[in-house]
Amino acid sequence: MMKKSINARNRMDKRIAEKEGMLKNIEKVPTMTMNFQADYHREILQLNDLSLQLKNSRELFKSLTLSLNNHEIIAIEGKNGSGKSTLIKYLLGISQNLIAKGNYELIESLKISYLPQEFVMYSGSLKDFAKKYHLSYEALLSNLKKMGFARADFTTRIEKMSMGQQKRVAWAKSLTEPANLYLWDEPANYLDVFNQDQLIKLLKSVKPTMLLIEHDPYFITSVADQQIKLTN
C-alpha cells in the first residue's frame, strides 16, 4: 500500500513538472474534435454477473455487473492480469479460449471505436490510411496537427514515424471515425502530459459513451463517471 501511494505521488509530481515546462512554450491548448454520435438508446451496455476464465487456466474475474448509459464514461480498474483488456476483446468478439459465465447485452448495430493497448503496426501514407479506414482526411490531419504534428510529418510514411507519433495516429483515427461507443485501452500510453490534458479536456466537453481502461489515477478521476474494479 505504501509503495503504491509513493508511486502515485511520484507520477503526479512528474506530471506537474512536465506540464509546467510545456506551458512555458504553449499559450493555448488547441481543442481537438471527436466524431461521437450519441445513440438514441439510454442504456448502451449491460453486464450481468459476468465472469471470464481462460480455458485450462485461472479465472480472470468474477461477478461483474455494470450498466453503461449514453454520455457516460466507466473506468475499469484492476491489477495487471485481472482481465481488463480481455473484457474489452470479449465484448468485441475477438478474444478466444475463454469460458464466460453470466451474460451481457449490447445494443446492436452500434458503431464502435476500439483503441487497443497493443501497438498496432500501420503502414503507408496518412492519405492512404484515411482512405482505408473511411476517415475524413482533413479531419485526421487537423487532429494530428493539434496533437503537435508538424506539417512536414504529414508526408512521412506511418511505419517510419516514431512510436509516439504512431500512437497519435491511432488516437486520431479513433477520434475521427464516427462512433456511438468507445472502447479505449490505456489511451494515454506514449502520449505526453500536454496531449493527455488535451484528451481530458475533449472528453469532459463531448461526454462520449465509453468503457475506459487506464492506470493513471489523475486521468481516471478527471473523466470517469464511475470506477469499477475487477476482482477474482
TrEMBL record:
It comes from the Bacteria. Residues 45-232 form the ABC transporter domain. InterPro entries: ABC_transporter-like_ATP-bd, ABCF_ATPase, P-loop_NTPase. It holds the Pfam family ABC_tran. SUPFAM superfamilies: P-loop containing nucleoside triphosphate hydrolases (SSF52540). One of its GO terms (molecular function) is ATP hydrolysis activity. Transmembrane segments: none annotated. Gene3D superfamilies: P-loop containing nucleotide triphosphate hydrolases (3.40.50.300). This is ABC transporter domain-containing protein.
